[in-house]
Amino acid sequence: MSTAFDFTPLLPAGLPAPAVKFTGLPKYNFTGGNNDGDELPLDGLVAAASAVLQREGRTLATYGLASGPQGYRPLRDFLVDKLKRVAGITCTADEILVTSGSLQALDLVNGVLLARGDTVIIEQDCYQGSINRLTKLGVDIVGIPLDGDGMRIDALAGALEDLKRRGIRAKYIYTVPTVQNPTGTILPEARRAEMLKLAEAHGVPIFEDDCYADLIWDHKRPPALHAMSRSANVIHIGSFSKSIAPALRVGYIVAPWAMIARMLSIKTDAGSGAVEQMMLAEYCVPHFAAHIPELTRGLRKKLDTLMESLNEHFGTAAEFEVPKGGIFLWVKLPDNVDTLTLYQAALKAGVAINPGPEWSINKDHSRSRMRLCFASPSHDEIREGIAALAEVCHKEFGVPARISNVARAGGGS
Asked: Are residues 211 and 150 in the same domain?
């Protein structure tokens, strides 16, 4: 009787823990960057895919669709127009590199700029994907606290001066200035100007992550940092994951050609998904501008349902600021609540949350915080899921103090 080959002795040291086998999504899923399936422009995407494949499908026989390694040219041309119109960015198609989602964009920027022992500056509460990558690279991370308007510029100035005194120049300042993840803040234009001034004075580039910038409730945004920079010291990344669909895995980088050329030399995947790029270009040129207001209207209604549910079932025990857009709500629970523990207990009850420490470099500050994604669950699932979460939180931590107003999920009792 044969036995399975044991690969374990061959694995190199330092690998991350093995992944858990996927067994399906939880009943009430408030995690991840999933979007609203009802708002997905499915009919338009189907029509776009059919049209572009019938017209240009034979170019699939060539790596890069004969557009070169930077990505499908019509998609880059769309981005040139869209970024100018919406964010004020002036660039050419040759200054855009299409990537397999924004995560690959992070990897490429880090790959050409960072080495073990380098120092970077990021927001204290920040995107988990960026934190994990920097930790894995062995980079020293300096976190800057946020307030209701995003990164605090006084704290940034202090951090830069401290590094200067110690003879350290940060490799970049990473920021999500427009609908910050996880807080949902928008950095005002005046602060953007101050950040750029500080960055230029200290010779530090800015790494601008704009992945949520399309999802603003009032559709009014300051110009991108890239647009405001006088010295071309800003690398800008974006994505179609939140504006169209995350599973398409299409993102992009905007940077000077000298940096794009460096990134191309380490982007060894022979090109990001071609059909996705073709379909997006075909759909977005005529429909993107009309799609975004429809998407944000639906998302704002779900946010309202989430906030109403938190107020009903947690009362004053759940504190939050209304985000200015996006798909996340950053919630503060009483100090005695450990959201890492709450996560495990809630998951057993079919409720998934993102515990705050996974989205912050200050674990004490974020210990009682959680990030809730409201885009994917239905309105009923939001109501039932928050009721169930409150019940678990009460059992584990006595929060909320009174549970009589919590309706049990599912039974309607």
From this structure: yes
> Which residues lie closer than 8 Å to 400 by C-beta, 6 or more apart?
313, 314, 315, 317, 390, 393, 394, 406
Residue 370 to residues 24, 252, 307, 388, Cα–Cα distance (Å): 22, 29, 14, 15
How many domains is the chain built from? 2
| Residue carrying structure tokens 């200035």 | 177
Amino acid (one-letter) located at 1: M
Token digits of residue 273: 């998904």
As a whole number of angstroms, the distance between CA 250 and CA 99 comes to: 6
Q: Return d(Cα 55, Cα 15) in angstroms, integer.
A: 45
Rounded CA-CA distance 268/271 in Å is 8
Cα separation, 122 vs 39, whole angstroms: 32
CA 258/CA 95 separation, integer angstroms: 9
**Amino acid at the residue 139:** V
pLDDT, residue 408, reads 40
Tokens of 98: 């299409």
Q: Which of 264, 287, 310 is the last residue of a domain?
A: 287
Q: Give the tens place of pLDDT for each residue, 83-118.
A: 999 999 999 999 999 999 999 999 999 999 999 999
CB 246 within 8 A of CB 295: no
Tell me the residue length of the chain. Answer: 413
Three-class DSSP category at 168 = coil
Question: Starting at the edge strand that comes first in sequence, how are the strands of the sheet with 354-355 ordered?
Answer: 328-332, 369-373, 354-355
Judge if the upstream peptide bond of residue 400 is cis by omega within 30 degrees of 0. yes
Inter-residue contact 134 to 120 (CB < 8 Å): yes
The CATH number covering residue 96 comes to 3.40.640.10
Q: Is the pTM of this model over 0.70?
A: yes
- The string of pLDDT tens digits covering residues 230-278 is 999 999 999 999 999 999 999 999 999 999 999 999 999 999 999 999 9
3-class SS of residue 8: helix
Condensed to tens digits (0 to 9), the pLDDT of residues 40-60 reads 999 999 999 999 999 999 999
Q: Tokens representing 132?
A: 């994990």
372 vs 181: CA distance, rounded Å: 11
CA proximity to 45, closest of 327, 288, 294: 288
